[in-house]
Amino acid sequence: MFTRFEEYAAASMLGAPDSPPRVDGKLLFTNRWERDVFGLALSLAKAGCFEWEDFRQSLIASIARWETADCADQPRWDYYERFLEALLDVIEAHGVLSRSELTRIIKARVPAADDAATH
Amino acid sequence: MSNLFEFPEDREASSAAKVRALEALLIEKGVLGSDSVDAVLKHFETMAGPFNGAKIVAHAWVDPAYKQRLLEDTPKAIAELSLPLGMAGAEGEHMAAVANDSEVHNLIICTLCSCYPWPVLGLPPYWYKDPVFRARGVREPRAVLQEFGVTVPPAKQVKVWDSSAQIRWFVIPEQPANTAHLSEAELAALVTPESMMGVALVAAPAV
């Protein structure tokens, strides 16, 4: 019996192909955006925008696409890249955002200040 | 105009920008509140996690009377400590502690992660949901412990506790030798989630 959505959501992924990276009983985020995208997916499901299981199936599909993609132009494995792709897919499928809004998201660029800082 | 693949070498920064834009738009549209994301993550980062269990164990090591209270009425004893709210409430109310000592080694198992004591241990490890682990944990706990690198002397009893919706067990491991001089916070840093599941011992800090 779960009394917290957060625990239900995380537990449902454990031992499955979509299991998130973790270490010592804690979620492992290498970058700030990974933490944010994980939180976004949970928050949206908690808010009722889609079922958590719908997101999980989208994530499993995204991982499967990566696994069967041609090796030649395949980017290196990154769990949270697949996570972001799956989240955008499920957001579109459930009409949380429109296609034009999602296009804007996909085209989002690094702000000039950040860009300068990383170069 | 940019396109999706304009900065392939900058994939990390590109993902970060997308996530930031996504969050901003969802907040702007009122789909999410401005603190929704932090609120769900806070659950994992400060509310439920092995750091809580480690504090409880370290306090039990330095205060034998507290340890006794922890064994007798776990939720009540946990409530004595300054841990996040909810620790001794709804999620933690079925928790029960068992202590390792010179005569007994405790191992906790469970096939349903819903029975895992999340508030004190955090996320279960990947093998915890494996039915084979549970089945072998019941049938041949010493062999399973050996595979985890824990050798239990024949004279020592092994007790296996099956967590359920009624009771979520966690283990108070034995305090390692030569650590009596350490502070409570230093002791807490030694306690791992695995040691509170009984599949590892707490090691003394490397000198």
Features:
heterodimer, A: 119 residues, mainly alpha, Cyclin A, domain 1, two-stranded antiparallel sheet, 2 strands, 59% helix, disordered C terminus, B: 207 residues, Nitrile Hydratase, Chain A, two-stranded parallel ribbon, 11% strand, disordered N terminus
Explain what the structure shows.
The complex is a heterodimer of chains A (119) and B (207). With 119 residues, chain A is mostly helical. Chain A has a single domain (5-117), classed as Cyclin A, domain 1 (Orthogonal Bundle), CATH 1.10.472. Chain A has helices at residues 5-13, 32-46, 52-68, 79-93, 99-106, 112-117, and strands at 22-23, 26-27. In chain A, strands 1-2 form a two-stranded antiparallel ribbon. In chain A, helix 2 (32-46) runs parallel beside helix 4 and helix 3 crosses helix 4 (79-93). Residues 112-119 of chain A have low confidence and may be disordered. With 207 residues, chain B is mostly helical. Chain B has helices spanning 11-28, 36-47, 50-62, 64-72, 74-80, 118-121, 131-139, 141-147, 184-188, 193-197, and strands spanning 95-99, 104-109, 157-162, 168-172. In chain B, helix 4 (64-72) crosses helix 5 and helix 7 packs across helix 8 (141-147). Chain B starts with 10 loop residues before the first helix and ends in a 10-residue tail after the last helix. Mean pLDDT of chain B is 84; it is low at 1-9. The chains are: A mainly alpha (119), B mainly alpha (207).
